Backbone:
């Protein structure tokens, strides 16, 4: 158990529907990351937060995607008007280092939320 | 931007064979470098890391040395076991504060008994 909890673990939806994923990171870690992983590929960076501030967004994150981290605790990733190309595993990660220490890039990953768009 | 290129798989070896999985990176600065592993049915987990040139990361019999001159971080193990069967990802931490981790596409390793 890495301490990063994601839900739902698997979501099947029809094209055009909205979906929301939630991540509860390791407590006291000020950074939180979202990645997307498709079959046979490595994780692709989507966005990251420092506390409640969203500091960087990938070009992969179209305007149909929105992420929030209210109060710097849990985070949500919403996909509006889903498309079949959105089918992937969505991963959340917390730094392994402590919340206020220099970030060395080591990440604890959650088990992911798998999205299937029919 | 920064990128990571790693050896394509799948790689199939017999137990006790020597393993090398190649990884090279491009970066404007001096990133931290990592190998992550994903065992069947499990999430990604950190295997080893190196934060500066000539550092050697090691864990579970695996090693990788940060080579600035060749911009490489090849993963090696002297004698693989069936339990090493997994997908291995090379990664770099962008910038001095490693604010963003960039992953390679992964190499699937299968070990025959």
Residues:
């Amino acid at each position: 158990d890495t301490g990063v909890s994601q839900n739902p673990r698997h979501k099947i939806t029809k094209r055009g529907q909205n979906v929301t994923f939630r991540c509860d990171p390791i407590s006291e870690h000020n950074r939180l990351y979202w990645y997307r992983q498709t079959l046979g590929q490595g994780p692709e960076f989507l966005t990251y937060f420092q506390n409640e501030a969203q500091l960087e967004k990938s070009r992969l994150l179209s305007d149909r995607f929105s992420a929030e981290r209210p109060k710097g605790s849990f985070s949500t990733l919403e996909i509006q008007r889903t498309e079949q190309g959105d089918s992937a595993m969505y991963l959340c990660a917390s730094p392994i280092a402590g919340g206020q220490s220099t970030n060395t890039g080591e990440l604890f990953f959650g088990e992911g939320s798998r999205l299937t768009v029919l | 931007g920064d990128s990571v290129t790693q050896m394509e798989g799948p790689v199939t070896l017999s137990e006790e064979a020597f393993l090398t999985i190649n990884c090279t990176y491009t970066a404007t600065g001096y990133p931290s470098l990592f190998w992550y592993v994903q065992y069947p049915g499990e999430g990604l987990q950190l295997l080893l890391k190196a934060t500066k040139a000539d550092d050697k990361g090691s864990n579970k019999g695996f090693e990788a040395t940060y080579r600035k001159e060749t911009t490489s971080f090849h993963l090696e193990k002297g004698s693989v076991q069936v339990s090493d069967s997994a997908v291995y990802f090379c990664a770099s931490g962008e910038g001095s504060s490693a604010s963003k981790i960039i992953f390679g596409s992964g190499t699937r390793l299968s070990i025959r008994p």
Chain A touches chain B through 24 residues (CB under 8 Å).
